[in-house]
Design a protein that fits this description.
heterodimer, A: about 180 residues, mainly alpha, B: about 300 residues, alpha+beta, six-stranded antiparallel barrel, six-stranded antiparallel beta barrel, 4 helices, globular
Chain lengths: ~180, ~300
Amino acid sequence: MIMRPGQRLLMPVNPGFVWASLVASLLLTMVANMVLWGRAAWAPDLLSIVLVFWTVHQTRRVGMAAAFVAGLLVDVHHGGLLGQHALAYTVLSYLAIMVHRRLRWFAVVDQALQVFPLFVLAHGVEVLLSLLVGGGLPGWWALLAPVIEALLWPLVNLLLLAPQRRAPDPDENRPL
Amino acid sequence: MARATLGQDPPPFFRQGPSAFSRLLVFSALSLLVMVADARFQVMQPLRAALSVLLYPVQWLAMRPLIVVRETQSALGAVADNEAERQALRQQLSAQTQRANRAEQLLLENRRLRDLLALQQRLERPALAAQVLYDAADPYSRKVILDKGEVQGLRLGSPVVDELGVLGQVTRLFPMLSEVTLVTNRDHAIPVLNVRTGARGVAYGDTSNHADALELRYTAANADVAVGDLLTTSGVDGIYPPGLPVARIEKVERRTDAVFARIYCVPLALVAGASQVLVLEPVGVNAPDRPAAQAEPKPVRNGGRR
C-alpha cells in the first residue's frame, strides 16, 4: 500500500468498534440535543462526522446502506419528514466515497478543509428538502453547523483511530 | 483467444458490487420514495413505529443524563427559591379559592339548568399526566416528545395542556412515546374564541416573524380586537374542549390595503419549557357519530303497480 510520508501503519480495525462508535455518536447527538442546546440550528451533527470518517477509512464496511439506515433513524428521532436525513446522509456517503482515496494523502488538519464542502452540501440537501415540503428556513445560525463539524474532524480522527494506533506488541513501557 | 479472458465477470479481488454512483441513485430514489410516501400518502407509520422501537434503547440511554440534570436542577432550585415560590403559590391559592367557590356554585346552577334543558351532561374528561422528554431536534418544526405512548392508552389527536394553557396536540403515536405538535408549529391551527367579544377565529402557528408565536388569521381589519385580549378554545373543532386558555393578543396591525388584520398572539402555555403536561381525551370521542348520508331513495317506477 502506498502511504503518505510520515503516516503510521495502523492495526486492523475492529468491526464492533466501528458500529459502536456510530451508535455512540447518535447517542451523543441525542444527549446534546436534550440537555445542552435543544433544537438550535447550529448544533453539529456528530453522527454525520463519524459516518464520513468511517466511509473514508473503511469504505468496504461502512457504505451508503449504513448511511441510509442511519438517516432513517435520525428522521424518526427528529420526528421530521421520513427520508430527509436518509437522502442527506446518502449524498454525504457518496461524496465521502468519491474523495476517500485522495483524502488520506492529506494531513489531518488539511483533511478538515477537504471535508468541509461535504458537510455544507449535506446540510444544503436538508434545507432544500425542508423548503420543498413547506418548512421555513432555519436562519443564519445554521451556517455554523458545517463549520463546527469540520472543526471537530481532527478530534474525531484522534479518537476513532486511537484503538488502531495501539502497539502490536504491548510491553511494560507501552501498555496500550 | 482464450474464452476466460473474454468473460464479463471481474476476478473476485476487484469485485466490489455495484458502482458508487449506481448505489447513490438507488438510495436516493429509495429515500425520495420514502419521503413521498410519508408526506403525501401517510403510509410510513408502521416503518416509523418499527424504527422507533429499534431506536428506543438508545433514546432511553440518552435520557439518563437529562433526568439527572433535571433532578439536580430541581433539587438546587427547590432550596434557592422555595420561599418565593411558596408565597406566590399561597397568593395563587387564595385567588383560586374564591374562583373555586364561585365555580362550585356555578357548577350546581349549570347542572340544574342543563337538567332542565335535558341537555347531554358534559362528561368529566379523563386525563393522563405525562412528561416532556425533549424538543424534537428539527429546527424547522415545533414539536416535543412525551414519555407516554400507545401502550399507556394515548390516542391520536388528543389535546395536550399544561397548567397555563393549551400546549398542542398528539400527532404521532409510538408504542412508548408520542409526538406533540405545539400550537406554535407552522402547520398547526386551533379554533379560538375571543373571551372579551365572543368572536370566533382560527389561530395558526407562526415561527417566521416572532420566535414561538401564533397568528390570528382571517379577522377583518375593522374587527373588534384589542391588545391583551384572551383567546380560549372555542370547542367547535371536536378536538379541544371549550374554554382552555390558548394565547393573549400581543400586537394588532391594521393596514388600509389589506382585508384582514395581522394579529400576533403569544401562547400562554410554556411552549419552550413545559415539562409536566396533561393529555386530555379528544372531545369528538364522546360526540355522536355524524349522520350517515341518506341512502338514495329508489325511484318509483310508474306502472309498476298492476
